[in-house]
Specification:
heterodimer; A: 415 residues; mainly beta; Porin; 18-stranded antiparallel beta barrel; B: 247 residues; alpha+beta; 2 helices; globular
Chain lengths: 415, 247
């Protein structure tokens, strides 16, 4: 067994790092460091529990360090940055039926890439929720430290009901890559460093019926009427197919959708479709269709292939490559900026601890191509390394050219 | 005359056992190992030349149709869960808070990098229903007298193996040894069971080793830390909505 280095818990922040001079800043950092230290100490008593009964509080999470180097494209020069990223997941088992979750992500960015983006700190500190649960501890041109609470919820559970109130992830997706049904918080496969996704300040009621079927209602209120999302979802299983239907309000639109997950012989076969129609001028306006289908298959010798196709009837056709630090604003209505997009992913597991995912995204619009290989290595029991490249190409001004590449080297320690 | 008669009777008994009871023996051993339902805590060790990993998980099973697996450690995988209902399998991934339905072709592949297949873990194929059974001969494993039984998959069953040989303890009806061949007749995996002791009120092996034939130094060891049979397990436990709540 690998012994976990305890001191890794502390995000070591040099107070004399460039740009931090004010006492105020130093105090903020001290508080953050103390808070982390305290939380890390909490885990000493929270980890041990009996096999059958969980402790009243559980703490898990990770610390990641990611070095990013970008080159090519319009910048035409090499730029780099580093991201130290800590996530703390706290779960409170208050009673048999009542539980609560509190999850926070703390990030420290530095490097010339950070400095190159004007007001980077405030850019990443925007959080589309009802209550502001984020703190920008340090906002210097080349050093930004930010914390955000992305889960803060209370859940009441019985065998037939779940009621969840607070900041939460409502994931209605079925497909592995693109999820037109995931209207609350669409998954973005390019943003690989934040698979948890931001939460919604919402209420969700799930009612379980017989035969593994569910009816649920979720509502995310917003100050502005045209920013709220609310919908009903009904899902059931028939003839080895998971099938779901949804209907509701999505910002300025009415939305209806359907999805399925099943198989054709040994081949996995899934799909999702959503139709968005503007609430205003209902009769004389046209809607937007977002639809995806996918097939996947596992071959002998640990090869796995996934083919996904996305249709977006209202493409923006603009591709913002500055996604690296942002939440890459995808929604179920606009999952990728082109009309037709094809994803192919080929995963080869060399051993239980090493694998290579060769992903490729292609759209006929400007022959846009993304090469996206990921090499993953579980170095030790709780210690992982990923080496990731994202390389974009497209036709621009009559030339087929590189739009830029980023190379990511990430280490992760999980606890 | 008496001798001849007794030889005939013995032969008849042996023949009838061989002809009819292969299935019965396998069923008895399978029932003993599985029970009507079970609740287990187990450790899986993946052993490779140069490194090893350990995983702790809990499993719940009810009949042949319903099964659940919850990963307890390592930290990164904690909370990952699998549900099998008849021939369908779902995978709950806590980081994205979603179920992913697995393609049927994944069943025959390695489960989380171990030498066990998904099928081994969630027992999609039934050793009783999906095969024809023939008792070949008696054979000893670790000093215990066993029936050696050949299993050939029935036509039109989606079984991963071309042939399986089982060694079942004659007295205690415990599967002690198993050899798995692919459709071309090549040896793929050898399973060996040991550390026989009382588990959940039954005499069973607490340790199973799965050794792939073509990879030298590779091995997966499954150790039962705790095993209970015939608990009250409601069908509602085996639903996709329950996967996030498993403890």
């Amino acid at each position: 067994m690998i012994r976990r280095p305890q001191n890794l818990c502390i995000l070591h922040i040099p107070a004399d790092a460039a740009g931090i001079h004010s006492k105020n800043m130093r105090d903020k950092i001290k508080i953050l460091t103390l808070a982390l230290l305290l939380l890390c100490t909490t885990r000493l008593f929270s980890q041990e529990g009996s096999a059958d009964r969980p402790k009243w509080v559980e703490l898990h999470g990770y610390i990641k360090d990611m070095q990013i180097v970008s080159f090519g494209g319009t910048a035409d020069s090499l730029s780099s940055s580093n991201l130290v990223y800590n996530r703390l997941n706290l779960k409170f088992n208050l009673s048999k039926k009542l539980s609560a979750r509190f999850e926070i992500r703390n990030r420290m960015f530095y490097g010339d890439q950070v400095a190159a983006i004007p007001d980077f700190g405030n850019l990443i500190n925007q959080y589309p929720g009802n209550s502001n649960l984020s703190v920008l501890w340090v906002n210097q041109p080349n050093l930004v430290i930010q914390s955000v609470v992305d889960r803060m919820l209370v859940q009441y559970s019985t065998i037939k009901w779940d009621v969840t109130v607070g900041r939460q992830r409502i994931n209605w997706g079925i497909n592995n890559i693109w999820n037109p049904n995931d209207i609350f918080n669409a998954y973005n496969f390019l943003d690989f460093d934040y698979e948890e996704r931001p939460g919604n300040d919402a209420i969700r009621v799930q009612h379980y019926l017989k035969d593994n079927s569910t009816i649920e209602f979720a509502y995310k209120p917003a100050d502005a009427d045209n920013q709220s999302i609310g919908a009903v979802l009904y899902k059931f299983n028939r003839k080895k197919y998971d099938i779901q239907f949804l209907a509701g309000v999505f910002n300025t639109d009415i939305v209806v959708g359907a999805g399925w997950a099943g198989s054709i012989h040994e081949l996995g076969f899934k799909g999702e479709i959503s139709y968005f129609h503007p609430k205003k001028q209902f009769t004389d306006s046209t809607g937007v269709i977002s639809a995806s289908v996918m097939a996947d298959y596992t071959f002998k010798n640990n090869w796995y292939v996934n083919l996904s196709f996305l249709f977006n009837s209202d493409p923006s056709n603009s591709f913002n490559l500055n996604y690296k630090y942002m939440n890459f604003n995808v929604t179920a209505k606009n999952l990728f900026p082109f009309r037709y997009t094809l994803y192919t992913g080929v995963v080869k597991s060399f051993s239980p601890i090493t694998s290579l995912n060769m992903a490729m995204v292609y759209s006929p619009t400007n022959n846009t191509l993304l090469l996206y290989p990921t090499f993953s290595w579980n170095i030790a029991e709780d210690f992982d390394m990923d080496f990731i490249i994202q390389s974009f190409f497209a036709s621009q001004e009559g030339h087929y050219q590189s739009l830029g590449s980023s190379v990511f080297l990430r280490f992760r320690w999980s606890f | 005359m008496l001798k001849t008669t007794s030889v005939f009777i013995s032969l008849w008994i042996i023949l009838s056992v061989r002809a009819q009871d292969g299935r019965e023996i396998v069923k008895k051993a399978d029932d003993k190992a599985k029970g009507k339902n079970s609740l287990a805590s187990m450790t899986i060790q993946i052993i490779r030349p140069g490194w090893s990993r350990e995983m702790v998980m809990k499993t719940w099973t009810k009949g042949n149709d319903l099964a659940l697996i919850l990963v307890v450690s390592p930290a990164k995988d904690k909370g990952i869960a699998y549900l099998k209902r008849k021939k369908e399998v779902w995978n709950w991934i806590p980081a994205i808070e979603r179920n992913i339905k697995l393609p049927p072709s994944m069943m025959s592949q390695s489960w989380m990098g171990t030498d066990f297949t998904n099928d081994d873990l969630v027992k999609e194929a039934s050793v009783v229903e999906d095969y024809d059974h023939t008792v070949i001969r008696d054979s000893a494993i670790d000093g215990r007298l066993c029936y050696m039984i050949r299993l050939l998959p029935k036509p039109q069953t989606s079984v991963v193996w071309g042939q399986v040989l089982l060694w079942i303890d004659k007295k205690e009806f415990i599967i002690l040894h198993a050899v798995y061949y692919d459709e071309d007749g090549s040896l793929v995996n050898t399973m060996h069971c040991s550390d026989i002791k009382m588990l959940g009120g039954r005499l069973l092996p607490a340790r199973m080793e799965m050794i792939p034939a073509e990879k030298k130094g590779n091995k997966t060891v499954l150790i039962y830390n705790d095993l209970k049979f015939d608990q009250t397990l409601d069908d509602d436990l085996f639903t996709t909505q329950n996967l996030p709540k498993l403890k």
